[in-house]
Amino acid sequence: MDRRSSHHITITHSNPNQATRGRVPFPLSSPSSSSPPPHFSFLAAWMKSPVLPRGWAIVGVPRYAADTFDPTHRYVTSPLFPLPVFAALRSLIALYALCTICTTLGLDVAEGSGPSFLSFFTDLSYIGLTAYYIAAAVQTVGYARYGSRGYVLQRWPRALQAAHVLLQGTITTFPFIVTAVFWSLLSSPSTFATKRTAWGNISIHALNSVFAFFDLVFTNVPPAPWISSVVGIVLLGGYLGVAYITHKTQGFYTYGFLDPQTQHATLAAYIIGIAAGQIILFCIVRGIVMLRQRLCERFGRVEMAQQHDPETLDQWEEVEVPAAMKDEQQDSGSSQKNSGLSDSAV
Question: Does the keyword section mention Nucleus (predicted)?
């Protein structure tokens, strides 16, 4: 039976008053002295409910608990690379990004600028990019090792699945914003003054977009849900608070164009322009992903995304029988039926 139809079955309980379709009433058990507090009981029952709030579907997570997150394993496969190679590439990117962010932090601490490390949007977005690639590498390596069992994110709570989807939506937009703003507004002759600054600026302000582009083009990750655009705008707005808190506590603006004393009305134009750029960039990124999906379907690269999918293998086993074979089977069945009738008559 198709796994997707499992949410249509009727769920029964030992208590006939609790027999419902697609919903578990609360509370699930009578309170006792050894039972957890009511709010924890409600949370546990809500997490086990076969029907989750409608909001989960908005972030790309199945609403029905019986449904599997990412059943075709698109978040851990590639249309171009075999699974072991793809897992190795994601692991290398995750390792390089982790070494870059740790080295940058260590050098900033050595130079006395460590307290302001988390005040820069560049560093915050690169931490998000690193976290995503570490998580993606772990999931992909696990799937390459235990393909028949899926990967661990499919068995984790819906909240973590939603967080992974939303994080993926930010790491495919923020790096491009960082790269565009840095090289158009912030770069200077000192960008490549030393080997250290040259390596740091290339790694954080250029390779970040390369890593984001890799996840857009060379993976089977589906388009980010539209809610990711709203999340991106909220995070950008929240960073404005971080920037002005930094100015209040440490006495400097992380980015010169955020100084209202020098920018005046231009500051509002910068803020609105970056927000509009985030929305436009999200639409462009979503279009690139949809184009990649169509090209993969046209050139037959979808099979590589499903070659380790046991559900897909079951579907391949259910091959449609040709019409000629069906006629032969019907003829043989009718002949056996007639012979059985003649034997019974005798």
Answer: no
